[in-house]
Design goal:
- The complex is a heterodimer of chains A (368) and B (432).
- Chain A contains two helices and 20 strands.
- With 368 residues, chain A is mostly beta strands.
- Chain A has a single domain, classed as Outer membrane protein transport protein (OMPP1/FadL/TodX) (Porin).
- Chain A is elongated.
- With 432 residues, chain B is mainly beta.
- In chain B, β10 and β11 form a beta hairpin.
- The chains are: A mainly beta (368), B mainly beta (432).
- At the A-B interface, α1, β2, β4, β7 and β8 of A face α1, β1, β19 and β26 of B.
- β7 of chain A pairs parallel with β1 of chain B.
Chain lengths: 368, 432
């Protein structure tokens, strides 16, 4: 693929980012802070997330940046097709997101600096409810619609260094920032007597976090990883006034990768987040993932599975999640560019709701 | 090529998915957003209307667009008018010498009744000579003697309408009935003996009408300002044209002065809010919306509530329309009323129909006015109550009915005017 085609594809991705204003991963997140994003590249996500620890272009473990030998930029787009099964029936929703952008490269002295943004919490939804009020002594049917469009992004600045041939360390600072544009509508059945109303609000969010991670190669072909990340709190402001504050979780994760042979890698990871500090209907989560990448850089095959719990949901019980993923990629322009593709299927189950989602992923990596 | 197609296919799917479809039916509270919730509240504000006043004298009988005639218990109204004189000479063709009018053989009085009671029976009109001195200040007492001893003629409307072609071949009287507009035009023929042509006055006539009926004796006679002007007069004159007596017809369709006298006159204003009557009265209500309503709430309905202090007065079969009209500036009784600034401008007024004798609470939906006050805090929060009647071509005008209604004012603590507001408090975004 020529550089010109790369530019065209970059433009297509940028257009996708511009039009993908809203995203909605899970109905379970509506009653909580939102739906947490995945700090994974398309490559990592296609392996069920198991490779995220070891992928320098996944905004997960900062230490992985140490393996980034040259300036590299990565962007991705995700199109999701969801089918929530509510008591009122099964719905079909669709959305497009632009979940992550990563840029990194060595700056000398063995130090690699990277950064970018990724989705921390998605807060886009549109909910319609019906009710009947008694107004002036008479019943009046009303329809309420609440919408939210936006979310919280994780803007990361990280640095990593291989302190020895077998050990790499990484540290990252995270600024959590974002906003949602929210609407509250009320429609009256007798709109001739009662005026329909539309209220608009702009909510700003901020917070910060810190992360540290390490990669250690105890044996040839075997790499283990550990991550600690703490996020402070999420503060919501309207018109400059604080309206809400929620604590954010501490993340602990471990992972292992085993290179069976040069073109076959197996990986697994375990991640724990104490989301229960975030408030009501929030739960601690433990997520696992296993995956494999087979084949060389030129045309790999990735498969993986993941499972665990979601941090938000009603009923006093954390919803569960299970997913399968596969993907591939293709290098071009003498390795200066690569397109990754992935397909993920998720099944979620909680009190009062089941939902499934197909997500089509596409990532573009450019090494100029 | 296959790979290129695959890439393009993926791009196409991504592009298609860019059109988000997110709407889900909420199953609350489990799958609904937390934080604040929409609430609709309904409150009657009983003390926000104050400094309310009544003013009388906006439309007097001599300014009214119709001449009201009624004779019912408690209401006696009699139109009076002056028909202008006519030239006492005439010119024909290329005449250079004016030809003198010798006199009039007869005359016809034209009266257009723009409104009459369909249920009235045995409706009769009596025509009287009035003193030539009547003017805009003439009262019922001033002309009561004339209405007693100066009868010219009487006409039974029902009888003439029952005749072929609505024409009385004996008296010459006739009536043109307009069934579309429910109006009558009376051609009332008078002999020279009944209506002498007085040269000293150039034929100027001061006349008055009294009506009677077995029931519902109430009519409105069109006059200057109506589509059908009147009352008019047609003189059938004789002119000396070079020694030859020649018949000539002279029409004067508009009176030079018109009005009506009432007995009893308008009741004096009291502590209540008076609207209507003759001369017409208006009432001004001043409001002060609470700040949380004006600044921080979404008003979805606003109803002005007025409790009549007495049954609506007037001719029994009358109904009328009260306008609750926004004022552009608060100058008391001289406050200019708002006018529609664009087609469909609803922030001007609301109306309420009222029946004579009714004592029900009168309600006005004034949401557009309240919304305007929210949007423009410099706009005076005041409403003028005006009583109007329906006129020609769908218009409404003040002073077209004898009806009057009075509402309790803010001086009555229990039954004072109130504003019922249904509103949604400002939604608190950003709450968890």
């Amino acid at each position: 693929m020529t550089p010109r085609r790369v530019i065209v594809l970059l433009a297509v991705l940028a257009l996708g980012a511009a039009t993908a204003g809203r995203a909605q991963d899970s109905q379970f997140g509506i009653s909580g802070l939102g739906t947490p994003g995945r700090w994974e590249s398309v490559r990592a996500r296609s392996s069920g997330g198991a490779l995220a620890f070891f992928d320098p272009l996944s905004p997960f473990a900062d230490a992985a940046l140490a393996d980034l030998g040259q300036l590299t930029a990565a962007a991705q787009a995700a199109a999701a097709f969801l089918r929530p099964e509510l008591a009122t029936g099964t719905l079909s929703l669709r959305t497009t997101r632009f979940p992550a952008f990563t840029l990194g490269g060595p700056v000398g002295h063995g130090i690699v600096v990277g950064g970018g943004f990724s989705s921390y919490l998605n807060r886009s939804w549109d909910v319609i409810t019906h009710d009947t009020l008694t107004l002036r002594g008479l019943p009046e049917a009303v329809t309420d619609e609440r919408t939210s469009d936006g979310g919280v992004a994780d803007v990361r600045l990280a640095a990593a260094m291989r302190v020895s041939p077998r050990l790499a360390l990484g540290f990252g600072a995270h600024a959590l920032t974002g906003s949602t544009r929210e609407h509250a509508y009320r429609y009256y059945a007798d709109s001739g007597l009662y005026r329909n109303t539309r209220q608009v609000g702009e909510v700003q969010y901020d917070g910060w976090g810190f992360s540290a991670s390490a990669l250690f190669d105890p044996l040839p072909g075997v790499r283990i990883a550990g991550l600690y990340r703490t996020d402070s709190r999420l503060r919501a402001k309207v018109g400059g006034n604080e309206t809400a504050r929620a604590d954010l979780p501490t993340t602990l994760a471990v992972g292992v990768r085993w290179a069976l042979r040069p073109k076959a890698r197996l990986a697994a990871s375990l991640t724990r987040q104490d989301w229960s500090v975030a408030g009501a209907n929030a739960y601690n989560t433990v997520d696992w993932s296993v995956g494999a990448e087979l084949g060389g850089e030129a045309f790999p095959l990735r498969i993986g599975a993941r499972g665990g719990k979601l941090p938000f949901g009603p009923g006093g019980q954390a919803p569960t999640e299970f997913g399968l993923a596969l993907g591939t990629g293709k290098s071009f322009a003498e390795g200066r560019g690569r397109l990754d593709f992935g397909l993920e299927h998720l099944s979620r189950s909680g009190v009062g709701l089941k939902e499934s989602a197909w997500t089509l992923l596409m990532g573009l990596i450019v090494r100029p | 090529m296959t790979r290129r197609l695959a890439v393009l296919g993926v791009l196409a799917v991504l592009a298609a998915a860019c059109t988000d479809k997110l709407t889900t039916p909420g199953q609350c509270p489990a799958f609904c957003p937390g934080g604040d919730s929409l609430q609709t509240r309904d409150t009657i504000f009983t003390t926000i209307i104050s400094r309310d006043s009544s003013y009388r004298g906006f439309v007097s009988p001599y300014e009214a667009a119709v001449l009201l005639a009624a004779e019912m218990p408690g209401v006696d109204s009699r139109p009076i008018w002056v028909s202008p004189g006519i030239p006492l000479t005439r010119r024909y063709g290329v005449d250079t010498v004016p030809k003198p009018v010798l006199g009039a053989d007869s005359a016809k009085i034209l009266i257009h009744i723009g409104r009459y009671e369909a249920g009235a029976s045995n409706l009769r009109l009596k025509l009287y000579h009035m003193p030539q001195t009547i003017d805009s200040t003439t009262t019922f007492a001033d002309v009561s003697s004339a209405f007693t001893d100066s009868l010219i003629d009487s006409l039974n409307v029902d009888s003439v309408l029952a005749m072929p072609n609505h024409h009385d071949t004996i008296t010459g009287d006739s009536i043109a009935a307009d069934t579309v507009n429910h109006a009558l035009t009376i051609f009332w023929k008078l002999t020279a003996a009944q209506l002498p042509f007085v040269f000293a006055d150039s034929g100027r006539q001061a006349l008055g009408v009294q009506i009677a009926a077995d029931s519902l004796a109430s009519i409105a006679i069109s006059t200057v300002g109506s589509a059908n002007v009147g009352p008019g007069i047609i003189w059938y004159t004789r002119v000396d044209s070079a020694g030859v007596t020649r018949a000539d017809t002279v029409r004067k369709l508009s009176p030079s002065l018109h009005g009506f006298v009432l007995n009893p006159g308008a009741a004096p204003l009291d502590s209540n809010l008076a609207i209507g009557g003759i001369p017409t009265a208006r009432s001004l209500l001043r409001m002060k919306l609470p700040r949380f309503i004006r600044d921080s709430s979404f008003v979805v309905r606003a109803t002005l509530l007025l409790v009549p202090s007495q049954a609506a007065q007037g001719v029994q079969s009358d109904s009328f329309v009260v306008f609750a009209q926004r004022v552009e500036a608060d100058f008391g009784g001289k406050s200019p009323l708002a006018v529609a600034r664009f087609l469909g401008d609803s922030a001007v007024s609301d109306t309420a129909g009222v029946l004579i004798g009714a004592t029900d609470t009168v309600r006005f939906e004034i949401l557009p006015l309240v919304r305007l006050w929210q949007a423009d805090t410099t706009s005076p929060q005041a409403i003028m109550l005006v009583l109007r009647s329906h006129g020609d071509f769908g218009t409404t005008f003040e002073g077209g009915t004898l009806a009057e209604i009075r509402f309790y004012s803010s001086r009555n603590a229990a039954l004072r005017p109130a504003l019922r507001v249904t509103y949604i408090p400002r939604f608190k975004f950003g709450r968890q």
